[in-house]
Write a structure and sequence with these properties.
27% helix
């Protein structure tokens, strides 16, 4: 389950912030997660609770902001939304799509005290 290693990376990023931003506790973490990120939200939530135990993030709320997959279809010359990798264009059925977004997983912001 790669979500555990993702949560370890999130913990490392978050644990750097108190010395830079001068806070003592994290109350909420908001993550942007794209539809194409290949991350299972339930597994991410579980990993977050486990990995953040005994840290300044323990007990913090995790808010996942779902972002759509975005691509460019050169055949239609239009931007489109997709739900999964290698999906055909919903307009023309073509497969020459260029992914433009929705594959990210990033910390949007932290609510701290």
């Amino acid at each position: 389950m790669h979500e555990m290693s993702l949560c370890s990376g999130l913990r490392e990023i978050i644990e750097e912030q108190p010395r830079l931003q001068h806070f003592s506790r994290v109350l909420r973490v908001r993550l942007e997660m794209g539809a194409l990120a290949g991350v299972e939200s339930a597994a991410l939530r579980f990993g977050f609770a486990v990995i953040m135990h005994h840290t300044l993030v323990q007990g913090a709320a995790l808010k996942i902001i779902a972002l759509p997959g975005q691509a460019w279809c050169p055949d239609c010359a239009q931007p489109i939304r997709i739900q999964r990798w290698f999906a055909p264009c919903p307009r023309c059925g073509g497969y020459a799509l260029q992914v433009k977004g929705g594959d990210e997983l990033r910390i949007k912001d932290l609510e701290v005290e």
